[in-house]
Amino acid sequence: MERVPDLAAKLVMLLKASSLSRVGLAQEVGVDKSLVGRWANGAIHPGEHNLAKLTTIFRKHFPALTLADWYREREALAHRIGIAERNDQITDVVMSADGPFAKIVATSAPEIAYKTQTYEGFWRTTRPSVVMPGELFHDYGMFRANDKGMIDVVMEGAGLTFTGWMFPMAGNLYVFLFDPVGRTPLIVLMKGVTLPRATSIEGLLLLSALDTQRTPAAVPVVLERLGDLSGDRDADDRRLREIIDTQPEPLFPLGEATLRKCCYRDVGPIAANEGGDLYMMVSRALSQGTTSNGLHG
């Protein structure tokens, strides 16, 4: 196999642009994290089989990527898959750096700096199934700041892993995720928490259901805190795997009845006439937090 010129720099660029850690990449490739580190620092070149695996993994984030693209010049590769470099304090590599996404990153930067610790931690989601009426689904995941000044999000449920970013803006939280099976984005809009440490967050999830019609749907979603990060990234990655495997209860459980009431509430003209909501909206009541001295609300 012909060696890829400047592979280490290209690999580092793709890792940054996808917000994928070396540990996460190693897990997906099925190799030790030290091997990914040696690829990234240029000490060793991946074999043909692993280069093909890398292409498949990064194609989840950059659908246009092909095996042949590794042999392009670094700048041509970046242009080919739609990323551009920026040298500012927010992020050095982002998608469409001069487009709408860059404006979202820039607008949210002050609140990310101020509110990251409010939301960092391990979380469980509760959401209704679109294709199985009456069933509640749980995802388990983590919010964590990365070294580019953004908040990474990873959620896993029913064998699917969703990755993306969270942006706090104007008192709300905007989460953009990618569904690797359905090959579509998921968007979550949640009401933020004013207290220093969020314990639960309520929002709305917009998705394409995994039915035969890929039906567009909007459903309520509630997140409950499962724990806090340790500050050791490797330890936190291991803890996340434990949480996904063991599915623990939240630190401040809202209870099954409260979750079902939120997820299956009526909306529309009839509900509005009876004091409910005309449209599906976030009630704010379930976006709660605590202070350092234990005040909860």
UniProtKB/TrEMBL annotation:
GO molecular-function term, one example from the UniProt record: DNA binding
Superkingdom in the source lineage: Bacteria
Protein name: XRE family transcriptional regulator
Originating organism: Croceicoccus ponticola
